[in-house]
Fold Signal recognition particle protein.
Amino acid sequence: MASNLTDRLSRLVKTMRGQARITETNVQEMLREVRMALLEADVALPVVRDFIARVKDKALGAEVIGSLNPGQVLVSIVQKELAATMGEGVADLNLAAQPPAVILMAGLQGAGKTTTTAKLAKHLIEKRKKKVLTVSADVYRPAAIEQLKTVTKQAGAEWFPSTPDQKPRDIALAAIDYAKKHYFDVLLVDTAGRLAIDEALMAEIRDLHALLNPIETLFVVDAMQGQDAINTAKAFKEALPLTGIVLTKLDGDSRGGAALSVRQITGAPIKFAGTSEKIDGLEVFDAERHAGRVLG
Ligand code: GDP
């Protein structure tokens, strides 16, 4: 059985006991272990390279002070860099807007947008005591509109009807209008996704963004996407000013390396994690806990 990074690093720490300085060989050995652990966790290769370069810089310049030995100093450099990349603490949704605060959901088809829309509705109702409306601007799949209706009901929120013969922007305008008239605090807008990046759809969601001026633009991404997450993240970051990420399907058996990739590529904080198919399978993302999972 492959040992995890914590075990590997503690073995290195032991071999470095009694040394007064950090040598280049120590650093190389440590970096090799870190690189392997990150790749095993499915962090995208360019992100791993960047991370290793940053740790290397810091490690080579590090002084061994006080009662620490070189191994312990190196381990703490890796941990700090990981926390800095993954984000620290937790970041909840920003709702500081003239009501309704609009939240725009973006992502590929199958990423979990519709499910997450309902999960967020439930979270906002229960944890933030908000009156929440959902609407689907996915006019390409009638089933997607019906799906949102069903899950919104489960969430205890209100669903605003839309039909495939409408234009997404007309749906958005009607929903905003309804939300204002009926004093909703939050409007969650689910959007169409494709199995791969699609220029026409990107233009459409940019148009919706300009029209709705959302306080949150959330990028929903499947944690099981592994290496591919980086390309999806790049495309959505170029199209939209993302304010946060929802990492879905963390209940799967992935080590969650996509978190590191997506965070680094978009620069946006990971705000929530999807942890089951059920309506309550949503957690506020805890970066430190997740860093531990990625390292194994
Ligand atoms: P959309 O196309 O982006 O709207 O994706 P859906 O919301 O329809 O989700 C696609 C599939 O992923 C559905 O079968 C969901 O039940 C499932 N799903 C979404 N989020 C999660 C999650 O956090 N964990 C698990 N296990 N399944 C999820």
